[in-house]
Amino acid sequence: MKNLILLKSTKLMAFAIALMLTTVSVTAQTNVYDDIIATSSNHTYLKAAIDQQGLASALQNSSSTLTVFAPDNDAFDSLAVKLNTDINGLLALSNLTDILLYHVVGTEISSASISNGDIETPLSTTNTLKLTKTSAGAVFANHSKVNTPDLNADNGVVHSMNAVLLPSETVVDVALDNGFSTLATAVITAELLPALTDPFATYTVFAPTNDAFDSIAVKLNTDINGLLGLSNLADILTYHVLGSKVMAADVTNGAVVQPLSTTNSLKMTVTSDSKVYANQAQV
Fold it and tell me: Is residue 3 over pLDDT 80?
């Protein structure tokens, strides 16, 4: 009888220990909000925005797998200056929830897993995120650079960022949505996405069609891969971009304009039948 009681006691103790370990395991689970964002002295504005919009519980969810591109305090200060407001003004934005969800992807993306040109769909469906990994290893989401990568929690990863992401349409979106696939590939290859996805920049892009790229490849006795391998690809592409918005109707015949590339100027022509040219290329 004593042996039987001892056996039962041993089983009961083992069950209690197992239950205790299970409880400890559950309570010890970390999450991207409580253990990274909320504890960071560099992300207090982000925490305030998340708390105000009631989004903390989504980031605390242990069954979720998340990537958070987390703007630091300096990023919020910079955005406030650009919008001519302050932090309270940012917290009062009508689309603040959408802006915050634009920083969160429903999968875990480590910096090592990012490929140059990756396009991710965040929890906000207003726009996609365009990712850049440069040849030097720098990582960008749109125009915002990762300044501290791979802050890991059990339910995902946080990448600290130096700029707030806005889901605004940019010239990159226009190119992607209108079939300029070779141009988009060239922009990605030349690592120009961060510049062209800046929501506060104003551009005019004279955008070569896919046929235009095919034509120049033939003339250079190469193919698209050969064009993408040109050492001056970035200079060629920025030669197609003006740092201001110019509608076709506003172009004047004989205008000489300076693109982002300083190698040469663009010479504009408007014919008597209102056709517009940049150098030899017709709009």
Answer: no
